[in-house]
UniProtKB/TrEMBL annotation:
Coiled coil: none annotated. Keywords: Iron, Metal-binding, Oxidoreductase. This is Fe2OG dioxygenase domain-containing protein. Pfam families: 2OG-FeII_Oxy (PF03171), DIOX_N (PF14226). Belongs to the iron/ascorbate-dependent oxidoreductase family. Residues 177-282 form the Fe2OG dioxygenase domain. The keyword Iron applies. The lineage of its organism: Eukaryota, Viridiplantae, Streptophyta, Embryophyta, Tracheophyta. InterPro entries: DIOX_N, IPNS-like_FE2OG_OXY, IPNS-like_sf, Oxoglu/Fe-dep_dioxygenase_dom. One of its GO terms (molecular function) is metal ion binding.
């Protein structure tokens, strides 16, 4: 197998129950400047509920392929994504996509909501009633609870950037977020970087932050210096009950590269692996532009302002298969 030898990365751990906010801010700032990855513990979601969410996720991925394809993701990125649907690292993946399957769940907007016809909003693409009893309710509850964890982390990030603690809580930001829960299942293939075979190809995340819950099977790797030749990859150890949090590209743009999004990938080791990613992004109409605390005459903005939905649409289109591919298969 062409897996490179790696070492486990030592990540800071942010305790959301810690009354000393300054300590949390300092730990987070250090993590963001070092690796862009950290653990979040004591976040308020019980271990029992986390285990229930993983059990329900396994139930979904255990359905027959034909059943899952009935809720194939739509143009608004809701629903099932088959194995090889996503190609995150075309330069190295030799035109073979990721060996993972997934399921997108977004913020629910009812059909009578004027926002519901816009990309990234709208009703979710749920399994038919009776297929998985109680499944939808479990996922909706987890979506709500993880949003609160994400908002708590965003407050600490704001303080670390010398902003008001509630900066990211404004209506145009996380007041109406594009918050996407994504269930993931890696089926147990063995990855081989030398052959361009990955569970998930090397990539950075698109939004503000990502919160990742994992089972106890390792596979996640990070590269702190994406420009290094050769790149050095470090394993991120699973931590029971914790979220692994990483920074996204929008935060890199907002912070003028003070905080950088971190390159990461997943290597399969032959074991099946389940994880749950929660991508926290601002509202679709949020203008992402350099923060006032991150620019000066000697350090002008490095990126032009861009609307959140324009940026996300481009990134999704770059990495996902054209839906017409599946229409042809099913014809």
């Amino acid at each position: 197998m062409g897996k490179q030898s790696t070492e486990f990365s030592a990540l800071n751990s942010i305790d959301l129950s810690n009354p000393d906010i300054n300590q949390s801010v300092n730990l987070l700032k250090q993590a963001c400047l070092d690796s862009g990855f950290f653990y979040v513990v004591n976040h308020g979601i019980s271990q029992e509920f986390m285990e229930e969410v993983f059990a329900q996720s396994k139930k979904f991925f255990s359905l027959p392929h034909k059943e899952k394809m009935k809720i194939l993701r739509n143009e608004k990125h809701r629903g099932y994504t088959p194995v090889l649907d996503e190609l995150l690292d075309p330069e190295n993946q030799v035109h073979v996509g990721d060996y993972k399957e997934g399921y997108y769940i977004g913020v629910e907007k009812g059909e009578d909501d004027p926002e519901s016809n816009k990309p990234f909003y709208g009703p979710n693409n749920w399994p038919a009633p009776g297929v998985l009893p109680g499944w939808r309710e479990t996922m909706e509850k987890f979506h709500r609870e993880t949003l609160e964890v994400g908002k708590a982390v965003a407050k600490i990030i704001a303080l670390a950037l010398d902003l008001d603690a509630n900066f990211f809580d404004q209506p145009e930001m996380l007041g109406e977020p594009i918050a996407t829960l994504r269930l993931l299942h890696y089926e147990g293939q063995v990855s081989d970087p030398l052959k361009g075979l990955y569970g998930a190809g090397a990539h950075t995340d698109y939004g503000l932050i990502t919160l990742l819950a994992t089972d106890d099977v390792s596979g996640l790797q990070i590269c702190k210096d994406r420009d290094a030749k050769p790149q050095k990859w470090e394993d991120v150890a699973p931590l029971k009950g914790a979220f692994i949090v990483n920074l996204g590209d929008m935060l890199e743009r907002w912070s003028n590269c003070v905080f950088k999004s971190t390159l990461h990938r997943v290597l399969g080791n032959g074991q099946g692996r389940y994880s749950i990613a929660y991508f926290l992004e601002p509202s679709r109409d949020c203008l992402v532009e350099c923060l006032p605390t991150c620019k000066s005459d000697s350090n002008p903005p490095k990126f032009p302002p861009i609307l959140c939905h324009d940026y996300l649409t481009q990134r999704y289109n770059d990495t996902h298969a054209d839906l017409n591919v599946y229409k042809k298969q099913q014809a």
